[in-house]
Amino acid sequence: MSAEGARPTFPQRLEAGLLRVSGAFVQAMPRAWMIALASAFGQTFGMLARGRVRVARENVEAALGREMSAGDQRRLVRRSMGHAAALAVDFGTLPTVARDPARWCEIPEESLRVLEEAQARGRGVLLVASHFGWMESMGIALGHAGYPVAFVAKPFANPLVDEIFTRWRGVAGNTTIHKGRAKEKILATLAAGGRVAIVIDQHAGPHDRAWIPLLGIPASTSRSAGTIALESRAPIVPIHAFPLAGARLRCEFGPILEPRGDAESVLREIMPLMEAALRRAPEAWLWLHRRWNVHPDGRGAGYPAYSISESEEASRKSAARAARAAHRSSARTAR
Asked: Model-level pTM greater than 0.85?
């Protein structure tokens, strides 16, 4: 039974079964081999996913085109497609990492001291991450180091798949807070002295939007991390998972930021630190994500070609609502 009590459908059971089988397979194989194989697959066959490749190319051109040759841009897109494919193996091999974290995860002493100092302030710790590097394995490293984390994540549509991924994330004592009315749980975790991790480089909708520059381009960014930091007074610690050779990773944490000003001010202090990590290893970021999906009205110059204006976004949402209402009305009439 799913979390909602509904009986899983056959397609849901099949999808979950395939995930269990593939997970067991990658966990039985050497992690380094599987990561390398997935990366090679992504760099070769991932390039056939024309829509995703187009988004990645437009992102790279808009963000780095002035400082990178056309050939270097193409190579970056190819490497990033390989990394995106390898992320699935990183997730699937979390139990492998948990069995021997010291082999796979490197945490410098200065990063551990950052966590110790932030924790000692007694207000919980808000960890901010991006879709960068081996971010899922970094959670295992944190749990093994004595800092288990509550990850804020959107639940998978298939509840059986969501249960599997939640279990894999939890092998080092970590938990998951699903998005959607998650604020109370986040604040309660921080008030109890816990650690909460939030990914802040996703596109935000119009009701929770702040325009925060990333790579010189204002990006629609959720105010949530800034709002939660201000309400909880929890110190903020940026976290990064730099890929190393042999499917290993180097976790770097810090510096500690104290929330001040308003939510937008908090985000403007965080984002340059996330950008600095991205620039150190650009191939490890998720370039295929529509990070600049919307731009402010009248300011489309310099944005990727797929980007639409706020007005067009509102128009599309309105049309979608009207279509849903018409569909519901038609369904009622048919009954």
From this structure: yes
